[in-house]
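Q: Sequence in, structure out?
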Amino acid sequence: MRRSLSVAAVLALTPLGLAVLVASSSATTPGRNGRIAFSADSGHGLEVFTIRPNGRGLRQVTPGMRGDATAVDWSPDGDTIVFEHDFFEPDRDVDHGQILTINADGSHLRWLTKAGVKSQPAYTPDGRHLVYMRGDSAAPQGIFIMRTDGSHRRRLTTNPFGIEFGDADPNVSPDGRTVTFVRHKVEGELQALYAVSIDGTHERQILSYRHEIAIKHDWAPSGNRIVVTTQADYPNGRSPNIATVRPDGSGLKKLTHYRGGANGAFAGSYSPNGRWIVFRVENLARERFRLYKMRPDGSDRTLISRLPFAPRSSDWSSR
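A: Exactly. Output:
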């Protein structure tokens, strides 16, 4: 759902300006805690912005694009941002989803894909490839990989349920060997966490459909845990909560404990130094959104900012 509140209005309403908008949908590159890229509604659609972790230095990166720029991910060297660009042609009743890159300073905007619906890109740790979701009539829906120049595309997964956006939110492990993704069994619900080897073999389930995993998860920089959101769609009035799990699916640990469906907690990302997890707490009925950080064991929960809208697909750079 698009909100018309401008970024300027957000700066006026929050005590720390736009503060730290972090809700990563991409694996975090190990390193120090650098700038954060995210998407926010500037009043004319979603644009990509960056900001320092202390809430200062807000900068619009994209140049005022037609449609929405979202699902951002930093290159491992912190020089480039890859993102999804969505726009709708009402005359043709066609939705477009493309993958673009732009330099961190807003220069050199470049289209990597054009035809079809391709979205939710994320870099491999070596910066040489991108994983992404493809969902169009040209081929069965699934997760793909390509070089960062858009060439040498190949399939990693095929959603077995024939759902348009069935396999989503691909993320690559820090060692570059594994791609995790969220698989839908039913449109908009019944979501499980899966993994596949980077060569497309050894597909396996990490967390079952009963957990209702949100389409935002992140690897710890060490590669030993994955942060997820469970009960993402408020099933039967249950609240979404944040948990971490080992890559083999063992050791699921709940970090937040909301109940009753009034409030929900949604995982953002690990910090690049691995010492924090940033997350959103929302009350949809009151349209209240708060950004917190906590230690990976759930302790030291700290309020970062109260926001008039939910932070959108964001990623934390290591420089």
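The radius of gyration is 18 Å.
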